Structure of Sulfate transport system permease protein CysW:
Amino acid sequence: MTKPLNVEHDSPSIAGHGATKSYAMQESMIVKWSLIAISLVFLALFLILPLVSIFVTALEKGWATYVASITDPDALAAIKLTLTVVLIVVPLNAIFGIVAAWAITKFSFKGKNVLITLIDLPFAVSPVIAGLVFILLFGAQGLFGEWLFQNDIKIVFALPGIVIATMFVTFPFVARELIPLMQMQGITEEEASISLGASGWKTFFLVTLPNIKWGLLYGLILCNARTIGEFGAVSVVSGHIRGMTNTMPLHIEILYNEYQFTAAFAVASLMSILAIITIIIKNFIEWKAKDE
């Protein structure tokens, strides 16, 4: 037999429960909008405001001055050198990242954990320290300095040194994107392909590469962004030779130190535009990866 509702005692309990739930919802909304507001204020102060100030300062003396600043021979040389380093470093890091991720995720071998630790090493070492290491190895007084001098091979204070230093700083990005992705996918599809008679290269291009393409592109975007903006290691090995070994960040530093603020911010605006394009491409890749 159904127990009748005791209106006198049960109704206040139900009402109290509803009030508690309503208060909890209200408190949850307050916390939600407070966190959103804090995030927006933080972004406005530390991202949007500095970004706007870069473009305002770059254009404060007019469009003609802005164009003159970015078409100055030293600025063009810095832009050219930066793009040259990108074209060398990013493909090499892509190859290393794929090879390292393939070895770590598809094979079992002694020293795997050591390899993973070495891949993470640039995250733990200051770029300036990395630059100093290359000076000690390839500089005039370095370990290989005398041999390089005798054979007229220039590493530091030249393009090869900048490329090596940048590669050291950026090589973990592609590998670190691919390793967890390839571990999650496993080796079932590759084993099936090989069991059906496909070669290793054919398996890679037709099975593995399509499965990792979005992770690979994401890693390349991060690697490209860090390559363009790298300062510490490149600053040590470049020698700051105007028109020859100054990348865009180094050129901006020199202009700023010489109180050429408009020119410095003009070149900085180009880097900002590249950063914005990078973010757009990154978000597009994330969106496409989720759709698949």
Notes: The CA atoms of residues 255 and 261 lie 7 Å apart. The chain has a mean pLDDT of 86.
